[in-house]
Amino acid sequence: MNCKSKKAKRQAKLRAQRRQVKLEKQRRKRKDKEYDPRRYLTRNQKEVAKRVLDGQVTMITSTGWAFFERFLVFLQEVGFFEIIPVDGAQFYRQMISVALLIMTYEVKVLLGISSINQIPGRLFRDRALLLLIGYTADQLVSGFCCRGHEDKQKPMHKNTLADAVEKLTAKEVEYILNEAVKRLAERRVFQQSAGHCALDSTDLETTKHYTGAGKKKVTVRKRDKQGKLVEVVEYKYGFKLVAIYEVHLRLIVAAKVVPINQHESNFTLELLQQAIANVGEGVIQVLLIDRGFLDGEDLWTIRYTYHVHFVVPAKEDMAVTADARAFLKEKPDGEYLFVAERAGQGEKQEGQVKLIGVKDVISYGQYGDGAHQRRINRRDFEANPINVIVVTEWEGKPHQAGEEPVFLTSLPVNQPLEVLDVYDLRSLIENCAFRELKQGWHIGKFPKKTAEAVRAHVFLTLVIFNMTNAYRTEIGQDLTERGIRRQRLAWEEVNQVLVIAGEYYAIFDIEELLIFMGCEPEICWRVDPPEVRRRYGLEASAIA
């Protein structure tokens, strides 16, 4: 190697070191800045009303999102704005704060905007909403940058937002979700929890052109040209969302995004540990598990390490399944074998069920810790006891012999109906979480075709999904009202116009605004003119 090559390498190394030092300084500087969507504007109804009379109006725009301000108060009360100013490790050139970019994307999800191409027409045109989440009037008019295509779309180009989402690291988006759940727990949102959480996964299918997407082979049944059912092998591409869901409060308490070909059972304990860290010890009492997560060592750890009960369906080829069905021939003794039945309603016998509960079945050899697993093939091996329930009838129709559903559980089975009713709650993660997220929240519509963009989109969608559901709870409403009283904000039932006057803003009904301008309508449907004057301390003569 010649001297010139060595010198060039040393200079390149020095440049890289200087750049790294510069980036670290920028990150520390960004971290010190707290994000507050109202740091540029302060709501003051009376002051803005007076400035309207004096003709001191900076900007006026219509808005149908005045109620969103209440939601912002809730987010502030739970400390959400303290979470989203993440480091932004992948943001090398930053003209817009990471927190504002994240909040903009959260609003995009909240509005139900499925495509990144719809943002200019559906989000960036709503100036009032952008002002509420932290944009300034100058940014809306002039934008953030005059380079290239960013000068054509204000306040930023749609691709800028998509690129920003892609730059968020896995650590950053997981931190936002986990910390948001912790903030809700600190505000006692989970005190209304019944302790029932569901563990399940759902596929997020893509095309093979997504970088980082997994691939798995599936067998599907289709009809051929002759109309016969045949099995066809197909390949699915994409990712998988694995989540723990609080079924009563409807909150995702822990989640992970992995390639679609990775088995969900690999993440059971990791997710449970994270969920407990998020909501606190003792909140999760029963974990309702999908059959795909069935693993004897994991079940043992769930019960005896994390002290959480479980209910999970058994698989058809398991010895414990056959043994549990064999107990159907036995008579209940009230000590180890219990029978229960619930009558149905109507002609279809809705809700009817008949089942048995069996205590301490010892034919599930895999139920135990690691040391237990290693002794399975020894002659002196003894299986650990586990409780089971077997459903014999459902809605007036008996199951065929040898096909009765069997469930494994650590819960007491002297009242087997209670165990089955608890497990029925697991369906809520499919109907109220996964289906709602896909149909209503467009969790499967990604901003870019990369694994990083998919992961960030999914986690940010889960965050705003959680916050919206928490806001709807009684505690969420109480937190909002408390914040409103503390900030002394006056709310109107009907607010249609946002007025900015200098550093202040206000949201008025259109009839109020006409009264301020001396154009009082002969008939006011929504406001009382004397009450408006009294509320804002305006004399009738001054208005006239």
Which terms would index this structure?
544 residues, alpha+beta, four-stranded mixed β-sheet, disordered C terminus
Task: Give a verbal description of the structure.
This protein starts with a helix and ends with a helix. The strands form 2 sheets. Strands 3, 4, 5, 6, 7, 8, 9, 10, 11, 12 and 13 form an 11-stranded mixed beta sheet that branches. Among the domains are: 1-29; 308-425, no CATH class. The chain contains 20 helices and 15 strands. It has helices at residues 3-32, 45-53, 68-77, 98-110, 119-122, 127-132, 137-142, 158-167, 170-186, 268-279, 296-304, 319-326, 370-374, 416-424, 427-439, 451-472, 474-487, 510-516, 529-535, 540-543; strands spanning 42-43, 59-62, 196-206, 214-223, 229-246, 251-259, 286-289, 309-313, 337-342, 353-361, 386-394, 397-398, 406-409, 497-501, 504-508. A hairpin with a 5-residue loop joins strand 4 (214-223) and strand 5 (229-246). Helix 3 crosses helix 17 (474-487). It is of the alpha+beta class.
